[in-house]
Amino acid sequence: MERQRTRQVMLTLALAGGLLLTGCGAGDEGSNSSADGARGGSNAPAFPAPNQPQGEQNPDESRGGYVTPSPDYLSTFALDVDTASYGYARRTLAEGRRPDPSTIRPEEFVNSFRQDYDRPDGNGFTVTVDGARTSKDDWSLVRVGLATRSAGENADERPPAALTFVIDISGSMAEPGRLDLAQRSLDTMTERLRDDDSVALVTFSDRAKKVLPMTRLGGHRDRIHEAVDGLEPTYSTNLGAGVETGYKTAVEGLREGATNRVVLISDALANDGETDPDAILERIDTARREHGITLFGVGVGSDYGDALMERLADKGDGHTVYVSGDDAEKVFCEQLPQNIDLTARDAKAQVAFDPETVASFRLVGYDDRRVADDDFRDDRVDGGEVGPGHTVTALYAVRTRPGADGHLATATVRWQDPKTRAPHEKSAELETFDESLRDADPRFQVDAVAAYFADALRDTATDNRLPGGPSLSELADWADELGDRTEDNAVRRLADSIRQARHLAD
Q1: Dihedral, 279, 285, 288, 294 alpha carbons, nearest 10
Q2: Sign of CA dihedral 106, 111, 114, 120
Q3: Are strands 208-216 and 198-204 parallel, antiparallel or unpaired?
Q4: Strand, helix or coil for residue 227
Q5: Radius of gyration over every alpha carbon of the chain, rounded to an integer in angstroms
Q6: For a FRET experiment, which of 9, 51, 405, 484 has its CA 20 to 30 Å from that of 311?
Q7: SS3 state at 361
Q8: pLDDT-derived band of residue 65, with 50, 70 and 90 as boundaries?
Q9: Longest distance between any two alpha carbons in the chain, whole Å
Q10: Do residues 442 and 485 make contact, with C-beta atoms less than 8 angstroms apart?
Q11: Are 491 and 483 in contact (CB under 8 A)?
Q12: Mean of pLDDT values over 170-174
């Protein structure tokens, strides 16, 4: 049994390595601006949209309804590539439980799916803005899509990686199974990382322990295997001690010119020591800010402390994913990119809507990532870290003015080069459109289905739902159709999850 538990931890470590490599950032060597074209909503039965009073947009709006824009008609948010909310929701539904609405973040549902945006030739972002009309009069969905270069490009030129794995070995992590997959995953991670990459290992339960200092893989792969093979689940979860010791170990093994990152693997069910995420982050603030060490959270387990992990990652200059056994091998073995370099820091997006054509709008999700409009070009204000191979999608519900024609919105992304901190920007324009959502690009439709699904899971009050939202049964059929059109199994699994939610609602 102890060896079985050990291999469970091995699986977690290996998955974190693979997922880490999918979560890096991208930047641009120059500041430029370009305009991209527009596309265009749904014929499905609509939920009623609330009437809007006149007034300013509420800067403290969280999971709220539609708003009349502020006088500047701006919407600003930090980029976010988290996907943990969708992964955990899928597992919860598969187990016959409805997810807690507080764990549903629509942007993480949308960003869990592949996009077909054009990608830049080199470092930087492309910006795509398109839109489509819903079945609700004057209501549309507007999509802002950002993409970095493919993860496989310039892989041989990337800096080495210095990865400090912080592994939760508390008793709650001792879930059985995954034995063969654990061995294969560990072998894959240690063999695919380069010889000049480095790995350190910290464990925590009731206390934290440095198991392996920063160690080059070249010539030491057996040593890394032996360190992981000796892990055993023990007692309570002192997550704060683990993060603090992990960052201390990362600073001790800091490599100049390398990608230095702490990878936290946990069910985040902290029950010992410091459990407040802000207090934990305060302890490691110097390491984060002065040394630029980012935090990557990997959530595991049927019971999962979603709020704690998300808060740590959002405020720790990082992001989160959630993994479970059904897709772990695919995520690790098939999606392991060759490039792990972080090339964009503090990335933010700002969308300027045209008051001549737009009456009101709502950003779908990003509730904890809102940024004051005046802080868009204040590079002291935190943004998000984004990397090669990533796309970031934001959806807006937009009510246009009757008969509106012409310019609708301008979307701009701003980021800093991670080495020089030099700022760069790129923009794209959107004109008014007539295309319905059911006739839009299939990937746009997938985004809409994911957003409608999240909307239904987290809010049963129809007054706050997105306009043009179909029933769960209709939504599942729509996802099935899109799964066939895109030949994408991830979209087919989305349809399965929607049906599971529908059965729970019956």
Answers
A1: 10
A2: positive
A3: antiparallel
A4: helix
A5: 22
A6: 9
A7: strand
A8: low
A9: 69
A10: yes
A11: yes
A12: 78
Angle subtended by helix axes 489-505 and 442-458, to nearest 10 = 30
Lowest average pLDDT, out of 176-180, 438-442, 495-499, goes to 176-180
Q: For the chain, how many residues are written? A: 506
Q: What percent of the chain has pLDDT over 90?
A: 49
The Cα–Cα gap between 137 and 192 comes to 53
Q: Which residue has the higher pLDDT, 217 or 155?
A: 217
- Predicted confidence at residue 67, as pLDDT, reads 59
Question: Which uninterrupted H or E stretch holds 449?
Answer: helix 442-458
**DSSP 3-state percent helix, strand, coil across the chain (nearest 5):** 35, 25, 45
Q: Is 171 helix (H, G, I), strand (E, B) or coil?
A: helix
- CA pair distance 225, 219, nearest whole angstrom: 12
Nearest-angstrom CA–CA distance, 124 and 30 = 8
- In this structure, the number of other CB atoms found within 10 A of the CB of residue 487 comes to 8
Helices within 259-367 (DSSP H only): 277-283, 285-291, 306-315, 325-329
CA-CA distance, 156 to 163, in Å (whole number)? 18
pLDDT single digits (tens) 265-300 = 888 888 888 888 888 888 887 777 778 888 888 888
Mean pLDDT of 395-404: 95
* Residues 190/228, Cβ–Cβ less than 8 Å: no
- Distance in angstroms (rounded) separating the CA atoms of residues 79 and 294: 15
> What is the torsion angle, in degrees rounded to the nearest 10, for the CA atoms of residue 168, residue 173, residue 176 and residue 181?
-30
Distance separating alpha carbons of residues 302 and 175, to the nearest angstrom:
9
pLDDT given for residue 23 in this prediction: 38
Neighbours of 158 (CB within 10 A): 21
Angle between helices 489-505 and 84-94 (to 10 degrees): 50
- CA–CA distance, 129 with 106 (Å, rounded to integer): 19
Q: How many CB atoms lie within 10 A of CB 357?
A: 19
